[in-house]
Design brief:
Layout lengths: L10 E5 L4 H12 L3 E5 L3 H11 L4 E4 L7 H14 L5 E4 L14 H21 L1 H7 L6 E6 L13 H21 L4 E8 L5 H17 L8 H12 L10 E4 L9
Parallel strand pairs: 1-2, 1-4, 2-3, 4-5, 5-6, 6-7
């Protein structure tokens, strides 16, 4: 039972790894001995964050705009030039769009679904050769998709495309888990509740007290909470889980209405 939660020596790709939940996960992996590649469409920010994380471990910048299939394929190809094996793929990159029902634009659906949902399918497929190269029956390769509790319940805000996309991410996770099990690749999803992030910043400023009051554990999620579940799913401790959607929300989704 030694090293049950170890990710030492594993190679991880974390999309959207320069901020928010992606950064929490990337930092957790770096500080615990994994080699981490972070991706973002903004090269200068991605480079700067990778430089900071490199002070505590091994982290590289690999920029890409995952809103298109071509960029998903290019990112996988760039990674393959550097690493023959990919042990952990964290599909975290995402976008949100809020507007009243009568004003909700078609562009919101196109942008949000392309990044939040289609890119998960496209990048996972593109990375399959490296994932298969890393996979063994005893220690599968891992795909970790970042969903949301807004894909498990009706959200407070008018984020129609976002909440729909996250519900779809949860089901795509189950579909891919069945498809890739024979290749010794597990696929699980994390459904975060409220965490300090750029995407949540305005919501927390406006509704922070009410949100905290709605959390049975009485607080907003901390970076260690997100790093912890990501390390669990990527380590030997999580090797026999696949097709799960794990809420990390302080109990919000099980709170009586």
């Amino acid at each position: 039972m030694k090293n049950l939660f170890s990710v030492v020596g594993k190679v991880a790709l974390v999309t959207g790894g320069w901020r928010g939940i992606g950064l929490m996960i990337a930092r957790g992996y770096v500080e615990n001995g994994a080699t981490v590649y972070i991706s973002s469409r903004k090269r200068e920010v991605c480079d700067a964050v990778a430089g900071e994380l490199s002070k505590v471990g091994i982290c590289h910048s690999l920029p890409a705009d995952l809103g298109s299939e071509a960029e998903c394929n290019r990112l996988a190809a760039e990674l393959a030039k550097r690493e023959p094996k990919l042990h952990i793929l964290v599909n975290n990159a995402g976008a949100n769009w809020g507007a009243p029902l009568a004003e909700y634009p078609d562009d919101a659906w196109n942008k949000v679904l392309a990044l939040n949902l289609k890119s998960i399918f496209q990048l996972t497929r593109a990375c399959l050769p490296q994932l298969e190269a890393a996979a063994t029956p005893e220690d599968p390769a891992r795909v970790i998709n970042i969903g949301s509790i807004d894909g498990l319940r009706v959200p407070m805000l008018h984020t129609y495309a976002y909440s729909s996309s996250k519900a779809a991410v949860h089901h795509l996770t189950r579909v891919l888990a069945v498809e890739l099990a024979a290749k010794h690749i597990t696929v699980n999803a994390v459904a975060p509740g409220p965490f300090e992030s750029k995407m949540m910043a305005e919501t927390l400023r406006t509704f922070g007290d009410a949100i905290r009051a709605s959390v049975p554990l009485g607080r907003i999620g901390a970076p260690e909470d997100m790093a912890g579940i990501a390390i669990f799913l990527a380590s030997q401790a999580g090797a026999y889980l696949t097709g799960t959607v794990i809420p990390v929300d302080g109990g919000i989704t099980v709170r009586p209405s």
